[in-house]
C-alpha cells in the first residue's frame, strides 16, 4: 500500500511560507484519447479544463497532457501524446486491440519523459487519467504526484497501487462514497468534490420542461429519464454526445416525440442556458456514479435535481435542492421529479455555492499540494 499524505492546512504555516503561495510548475495529466476542449466528451474532460483554467488564473504554470485538439489557452504548454506505428504482425494479433496498445504506449512514453525531466521542469504531477501506468510508474519520479480517483478501484488500477511502494503518489477521491470504495486498496484518502465555476453556470429563469445531460450510453440511463418525465407529464430535452450508436438507435430514438427532444452535443454556454431554462434536471445513472458533475452544474443554474440514489450523488444534493429516487425505479423518479420541480431555485444555487464551487475545490487541492511539497519523500 502506498503512503497517504496528510494535507497541510493554512494554520500550519505562516502566510507566504506555503509552497502554493508561489507559482508552481504543474504537469496535469488527462486522457490520451479525448481532447480537453468544448464540447466536452464527458465530465472528466470538463473537470480537467476547469482545473487547468483555475490554476492558470492563479499564476501557476500548467503543462497539459491530453489528446490532440485540446484547448491551448488553458495551459502554458502541452505534453505530446506519442503514437506507435505497429507492425503488420502486431496489428494482426487478435488478443491485443490496437487502441489499447496506443493508449499504453502514450502513457509509457509520458512517464518515462517525466522521469527524465523530473524536478528540473515540474514541481509536481496531478494525475486525472484513468490509466494504471501513471500510478505504477510514479516511483520513478523525483517529484510528488497526486492522483484524483474519478472511478471505483478497477482491477488495473488496483494492480498499479499494489506494486507501488513508499510515498510515490497521494490520492484524492471525488466523493466520500468513492473514498470508501478505495479504502481497502489505498487506505484512507482525502476527498475533494469536483468544483465548477458558478459564474459560468448562471442562474436561469426555469421553465416548463425537464432536462437530462451527459453521454448517451446505457450506464447513464437517459431512457429512464425519458420514461420518468413522460410518467410525470413533463416534456424533456436531452443533450449530450452519442457514444453508443446502437443504444441510441434502440432506446433513445424510438422514444423521441413532441414531448421528448434530443438537442445535440452542446457547448458549455448553450448547455448552461438549456439547463437554466429547465424546471428540473434528471440524473439517472444505473451504476454507482462516483460524483455527478451534471448535478453541480444544474444546481448552479438554480435548477433542482431529481436523481437516483446512487454513489456520490446523495452527497451533493440536500432536501432544499433536490429529491432522490430509488435506483432504476421510473415511478419513484417521476415522483421525485414532480417534487423537485417545486423547490426553490435560490436554494438550489446556494447549495452549489456551498458544496460544489470552484473556490472550495481550489482551496482544498492547494492544501493537498502544500502537504505534498513539504512532506519528505521516501
TrEMBL record:
Coiled coil: none annotated. It comes from the Bacteria. Residues 212-340 form the Glycosyl transferase family domain. InterPro entries: Glyco_trans_1 (IPR001296), Glyco_trans_4-like_N (IPR028098), Glycosyltransferase_grp1 (IPR050194). Keywords: Glycosyltransferase, Transferase. Residues 42-200 form the Glycosyltransferase subfamily 4-like N-terminal domain. The keyword Nucleotidyltransferase does not apply. It holds the Pfam family Glyco_transf_4. Its EC number is 2.4.-.-. Residues 1-21 are annotated as: Disordered. GO terms for biological process: carbohydrate derivative biosynthetic process; liposaccharide metabolic process. GO terms for molecular function: glycosyltransferase activity. PANTHER family: SULFOQUINOVOSYL TRANSFERASE SQD2. This is Glycosyltransferase. It comes from Williamsia herbipolensis.
Amino acid at each position: 500500500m502506498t503512503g497517504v499524505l496528510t494535507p497541510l492546512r493554512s494554520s500550519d504555516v505562516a502566510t507566504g511560507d506555503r509552497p502554493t503561495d508561489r507559482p508552481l510548475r504543474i504537469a496535469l495529466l488527462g486522457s490520451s484519447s479525448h481532447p480537453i476542449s468544448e464540447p466536452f466528451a464527458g465530465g472528466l474532460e470538463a473537470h480537467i479544463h476547469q482545473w487547468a483554467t483555475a490554476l492558470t488564473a492563479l499564476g501557476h504554470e500548467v503543462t497539459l497532457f491530453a489528446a490532440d485538439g485540446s484547448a491551448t489557452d488553458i495551459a502554458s504548454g502541452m505534453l505530446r501524446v506519442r503514437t506507435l506505428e505497429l507492425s503488420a504482425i502486431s496489428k494482426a494479433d487478435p488478443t491485443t486491440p490496437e487502441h489499447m496498445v496506443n493508449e499504453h504506449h502514450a502513457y509509457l512514453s509520458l512517464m518515462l519523459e517525466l522521469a527524465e525531466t523530473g524536478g528540473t521542469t515540474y514541481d509536481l504531477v496531478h494525475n486525472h487519467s484513468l490509466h494504471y501506468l501513471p500510478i505504477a510508474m510514479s516511483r520513478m519520479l523525483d517529484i510528488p504526484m497526486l492522483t484524483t480517483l474519478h472511478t471505483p478501484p478497477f482491477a488495473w488500477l488496483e494492480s498499479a497501487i499494489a506494486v507501488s511502494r513508499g510515498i510515490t503518489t497521494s490520492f484524492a477521491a471525488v466523493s466520500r462514497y468513492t473514498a470508501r470504495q478505495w479504502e481497502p486498496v489505498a487506505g484512507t484518502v482525502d476527498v475533494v468534490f469536483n468544483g465548477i465555476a458558478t459564474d459560468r453556470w448562471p442562474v436561469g429563469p426555469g421553465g416548463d420542461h425537464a432536462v437530462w445531460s451527459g453521454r448517451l450510453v446505457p450506464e447513464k440511463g437517459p431512457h429512464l429519464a425519458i420514461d420518468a418525465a413522460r410518467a410525470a407529464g413533463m416534456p424533456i430535452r436531452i443533450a449530450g454526445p452519442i457514444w453508443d450508436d446502437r443504444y441510441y438507435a434502440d432506446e433513445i430514438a424510438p422514444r423521441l416525440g413532441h414531448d421528448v427532444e434530443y438537442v445535440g452535443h452542446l457547448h458549455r454556454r448553450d448547455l448552461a442556458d438549456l439547463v437554466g431554462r429547465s424546471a428540473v434536471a434528471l440524473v439517472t445513472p444505473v451504476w454507482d456514479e462516483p460524483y455527478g458533475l451534471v448535478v453541480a452544474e444544474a444546481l448552479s443554474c438554480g435548477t433542482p435535481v431529481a436523481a437516483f440514489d446512487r454513489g456520490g450523488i446523495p452527497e451533493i444534493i440536500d432536501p432544499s435542492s433536490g429529491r432522490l429516487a430509488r435506483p432504476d425505479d421510473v415511478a419513484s423518479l417521476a415522483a421525485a421529479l414532480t417534487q423537485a420541480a417545486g423547490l426553490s431555485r435560490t436554494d438550489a444555487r446556494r447549495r452549489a455555492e456551498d458544496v460544489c464551487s470552484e473556490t472550495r475545490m481550489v482551496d482544498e487541492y492547494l492544501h493537498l499540494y502544500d502537504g505534498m511539497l513539504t512532506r519528505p519523500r521516501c
